[in-house]
Each structure stands twice: as structure tokens, then as C-alpha cells.
Amino acid sequence: MPDDVYWMQHALQLAEKAQAAGEVPVGAVIVQNDELIAEGYNQPISQHDATAHAEIMALHTACQKLQNYRLPGTTMYVTLEPCIMCAGALVHARIERLVYAASEPKTGAAGSLLDVFTLPNINHRVNCESGVLAEQSSQLLRDFFRQRR
Questions:
Q1: DSSP letter assigned to residue 20
Q2: pLDDT tens-digit series, residues 29-74
């Protein structure tokens, strides 16, 4: 979908912001009715908070903005496949759709390591799509970790 590329480009800009701050370059945006609701980028190092992943930062902002811990009818765009913590948070927030760029074979919880969204008896299903601007996101991550070595 054309909007998917647009919003993922926005998320990639946020990932670059994380990288400039010395954080793993991951960015996330939450959209509802083609309107930006919230954005976030990785900040666990600077915030001294293991939960300060891009997805969690965006969820926190969206919930505050909409004054609701549930976010039905929203789409999250994130540059890297969510981890178990973030995938669980997306379920609890009732995010309708997730679009992510690059897969994360070591910790990805949207189909790579496991798929939280298809676990039996889970109380909400997040529609998940992957691969939108995957190469750009993967290259950003490769460059970041190459510089760190």
C-alpha cells in the first residue's frame, strides 16, 4: 500500500534519530485514519529503561494522546520486527495492524523466533505485514553495528 511506504519512511527517520543518539536504530509510528497519532524511537540507553523500545515509546504517547489504553483502529509501523515484550504490548493495546520492515531472527516475535499474534487463546489478533522498506532498515542496522565493532 502506498501509505505503508510513506509511514515507514517516517519510522526510518526516527530510527536515524535513535542512531544519532547512540541507540540501536529502531523507529515506530502509530497512525489512525491516515493521521499520525504518535511516534517513538529506541531510548533504553539514554532513559536507563529496558522497556524504552521504539514501540513502547510510541504506545505510551498514543495512549496518553487518545486518553485510552486501548488503540483500536490503529496501525503501527516499525523498522524492526517487535520483540516478545513489544508484541505483547501491541496485543494489550489492541493495535489493529502492524507493519514492520526488517525481520529479527534472534528475538523477533511476529514470525521469526515465534509469533505472539497467532498464539492459541490470545484475546486479540494483530494483523501483521512485513518487508516494507526492509532493505533500508536492514542496512541502517548493519551500518550501526559495524560502527560499534
A1: H
A2: 999 999 999 999 999 999 999 999 999 999 999 999 999 999 999 9
Q: Are 109 and 83 in contact (CB under 8 A)?
A: yes
Which residue's C-alpha cell is 488503540?
A: 71
Beta strands in 9-124 (DSSP E): 27-32, 35-41, 74-80, 97-102
Q: How many CB atoms lie within 10 A of CB 123?
A: 7
- Would you name the residues annotated as active-site residues? 55
Contacts of 55 (CB under 8 A, 6+ apart): 28, 40, 76, 78, 82, 86, 89, 90
- At what angle are helices 54-66 and 84-93 packed, to 10 degrees? 20
In whole angstroms, what is the distance from residue 14 CA to residue 78 CA? 10
According to DSSP, the residues that pair with 128 across neighbouring strands are 98
